[in-house]
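Researcher: We're teaching a course module on how sequence relates to structure. For the next exercise, students receive a sequence and then see the predicted structure as C-alpha cells, so they can try to spot secondary structure elements on their own. Here is the exercise chain.
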Amino acid sequence: MNSFSLDHLTPTDFEQFCYDLLHELGFVNIDWRKGTGLSASPSDRGRDIECEFRNRQMDGKEYTEKWFVECKHHERGVPPDKLEGALSWASAKRPDWLLIIVSNFLSNNAKDHLEDYKESNRPTFKIKYWEKPELEKLVAGLVAGKVELIRKYRIEIPEQPRVTSKEELIERLKKIVQDKNAIALHDLICERTDDLLSSLSEDSLPPLDDSADATKLETRLAECEAKTDAMSALFANGIYWSGAEYQSLWLQSLERTANLGTRGKGASWARNLPLYPALILLYSGCIGAIAKGHFDMVAALLLKPRIPEENLWTSPALALTTCKVMERHNYPRGATDWTVPLSRRLYDFLGQNLRPLFALAIDYPSAFDEFECLLGIVNVDLSLKSKPRRSTEDSPIGLFAVRHDDPFAPDYGPELLKKVVNEATTIGSAWPPLNAGLFERSPERFLIAAARYEQEFNLFRARRRHRGRPKDLC
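Model: And here is the predicted structure for the students to work with:
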C-alpha cells in the first residue's frame, strides 16, 4: 500500500511545494523569501514565505491576515532551536499568524517549546503548525481538477482498502465527503465506473436477438440492475452529500457508462438496451439531487454529458429516456401487457437506494414523478430547439401518467403536470429548475415546451381510452 511521504524532495523542492500548496488553498500575495539559488535559504531571516489570507466576516466584510510561513524539511523530529529564527522574526514584525510547515513531525520538545513560548510571551500573533498528517489531508482535500500538485511533486496518496458490500461503499463515500478528500472521491468513482463497465461488456451481456422473449428480456434487465446497483447507490448518495465542486466526476462517470459498447445490435426493440445502466445512473443522480435541492446538478446531468446518436452528439435528456432505451411499440413476445415498463421498473428498483434520502416515505414517489415530468418537458424543449428538429412524439411519458389509474384518482397525472406549470409560472425565473439553467432560464421557453408536452400527454391518455387501455405504451 502506498504511503504519503515528502522525503524524496530536496529542501528547496519542499519550500516550493509549500508555496504551491498555499496558492491552491487560497492564499494570495505569496512571496517566497528564498534569496539564493542554493539548497538552503540563508537570507529568509526566519520566514521562508510571506503571504496573505482573506477572510469574510458574517456581515460580508473582508479582512486580510498576514501570515509568515516557516518550512522545515527534516527526516526526524524538528528540534526547538530550529524554530528560534521564525519566532524572533514574527515577534519583531507581528504578523497575524506564524505557520510552521513540517515535512514529517515536530519533536515533542519543540511542541513543548512552542507552548512555553505562548505562555511566557503572550505573542500578538497566533501560532499554527502543519505536520505530515495535516499535509496529507490538505493535499488529498484539494478539489478535483487541481491534481497537478500531486503529479508535480510525485506524491503518492495512500490507497483505500477495497470495500465489498454496498453498505460499506456508502459509509466510505460519506467519510470521504466529510473529509473533503477529492482525490479519494475521484479514485473511488473511477474505480467503481471501471468495475461497472467491465461487468457490462458484450462478453458478459451479449445482444438479445429476435428470438428473445419476455423471459429473456426480464433476465437481461435484472442482470443490468444487479450489476448497476452499487453504482446507483454511489450516485444517489454521492450527489446528495457532495458539493458542486465534484460535479465533473459524476458527469464523466455517466458519460462513460452511456458510451459503453455498441448499440444497434440484436432485436429492434433491444438495440438501445446497452443504455439501460446509464439510464439507471441518470435517475439515481437526478432524484438524489432533487432530494437535496441541488437543481444545478439536475441540470448538469441532463444537459452536459455527451452521448453519440446517429453520428451526432446529444444530451442525456434526449438519449437517456425510457422510450429511447427500449422502443415503444416493439416489445418481445409476452411483454405486450407492460405499462410504462422501464419507468415502473426504475421506480421499484431505485427505491431501496433513494428512499433513505427522504424524510417522509411519500417524498420518494413525489420526487420520482416530478423528475419524470420535468425530464419529459426538457426532452420536448430540446427536441424543438434541435437542428434538425426532432419529433416530440417519442417524448417520455412517465409512471405518473398511470400511477393512479383507477376510479379514485383518475386525474393524478394531469394534476401533477398542472402543479409543475403553476410553480414555474408563480415563481418565474427563480423557480429552481429555471434558475439552474434549464430552458436557458427562460419562463416563456418553459411554457412553450410544457404546452407541447401536455399535448403528447393528452394524446397518450386518449390512446389508452380508445384502445381499452393498451399496455404496450411507454
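Model: If you want an answer key for the exercise: Confidence is low (pLDDT under 50) at residues 35-46, 469-474. The chain has 18 helices and seven strands.
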